[in-house]
Amino acid sequence: MTDAVVTDTAYARLDREGQVRVLRRLARAGAAAYGLDVARLTLVEHGYNTTFRVDTRDGTRVALRVNTNSKSTAANIAAQQAWVHALRAETPLLVPDALQTPDGGWFVEVPTSADGPLGAGVAVRVVANAWLAGPDVGQLTIETAREVGRAMAILHAHAEGWTPPPGARLPVFDSPLFGDPVRLPSDGTPLADTLGEARERCAAAFAEVYAGARPIALHADLHGGNLKWRQGRLAVFDFDDAGMGVPALDLAIATFYLRDGEPEREQALREGYAALRPLPDVAPEHLEAFLAARQLLLANSLIASSTAGQGIDPQRYLEVTATRLRRWLGGGRFALDPPWR
Q1: Prior bond of 338 cis (ω within 30°)
Q2: Residues 6 or more apart whose Cβ sits within 8 Å of residue 44
Q3: CA 214, CA 160: separation in Å to the nearest integer?
Q4: CB of 194 closer than 8 Å to CB of 102
Q5: Closest CA to 61 of 70, 69, 51
């Protein structure tokens, strides 16, 4: 039985409603395997992966994620969930605790039907966490950016003394595309040449920064879509992209989403981090290369996504990516220019 990464399947050709119907059935099977007595199953997000809220008959609420496009292996998911569980128990950071199956596992595998749109011999992994109520943060304000910096510092301080349990491991993010297959065009066009030159320069920066470094666990996706406000506290969720890397990479990823012409928010992010621990020691040009690498990673991932209804034209996104990277290559500073929306 193979893992589910659902590109190039009948599922990928379904519309949004058709995909959600398929995943709802898998989510119900996954909930049953977790021992949840489902009263209601509500779609929360149909994106890179798909999340449902489970309301059980005893009043418990659970976030159930069906991994469709996720590249996380069984060992990766075990490490992600074990880290979330440790963070919940050992730090003041608010995270949705990872739930275990009746036999102590961190996820369940739901087989798909042989004649279904996902194909024969495919297993979809389903992951459960405690429900995290509260509004998404969305666009960061100056004050929220400062809180994100503090949360990141807490994550890094804990990660320095944490190791995955036996049989669990996180991927190492020591290259621009995080080890993913290269899907970016390489057809000799000006666009492809720009992407290739940017990837080479980013790879050189990764090699320099990682030389002699000790990677630690990183969230690797700290932006407003993975943050909530709960009773006046910032909460962090969605550890599906977690991996091992240098702290400066986490800082760069969060900074990426702030590079829209408001430097005060980026400064607040750094101030929040520095209030709890020293800022990562990284040369400015290397930090800019990490920002550029984030752009490459997002473009590469989008090409592989099977999710319908995202409203993103991959070719147009590649053109925006190339323009942004061309300006970075010429001027040394990365910016979200032109804006995507």
Answers
A1: yes
A2: 51, 52, 53, 63
A3: 9
A4: no
A5: 51
Q: 85 phi and psi, to 5 degrees?
A: -60, -40
- The 3 state secondary structure assigned to 13-80 is HCCHHHHHHHHHHHHHHHHHHCCCCEEEEEEEEECCCEEEEEEECCCCEEEEEECCCCCCCHHHHHHH
Quickly list DSSP for 221-272: --SGGGEEEETTEEEE---TT-EEE-HHHHHHHHHHTTTTT-HHHHHHHHHH
Residues of the chain with CATH 3.30.200.20: 2-130
For residue 87, count other CB atoms closer than 10 A to its CB: 24
CATH number of the 142-331 domain: 3.90.1200.10
Read off the pLDDT of residues 254-284 as tens digits, 9 standing for 90 and up: 999 999 878 999 999 999 999 999 999 999 9
Pick the CATH number of 2-130 from 3.40.50.150, 2.60.120.330, 3.30.300.30, 3.30.200.20: 3.30.200.20
Tell me the pTM.
0.92
Where exactly does CATH 3.90.1200.10 map onto the chain?
142-331
pLDDT tens track for 196-255: 999 999 999 999 999 999 999 999 999 999 999 988 899 999 999 999 999 999 999 999
Is residue 320 within 8 A of residue 335, CB to CB? The reply is no
Residue from 152, 137, 148 nearest 266 by CA: 148
Token pair of 242, please?
């977690």
Q: Is 122 helix (H, G, I), strand (E, B) or coil?
A: strand
User: Per-residue pLDDT tens for 76-102?
Assistant: 999 999 999 999 999 999 999 999 999
Q: What is the mean pLDDT of residues 17-38?
A: 94
C-alpha closest to that of 239 among 70, 36, 23: 70
The alpha carbon dihedral of 20, 24, 27, 29 has a sign of negative
For residue 311, give every residue at least 6 positions away whose Cβ sits within 8 Å of its Cβ, in sequence order, or none. Answer: none
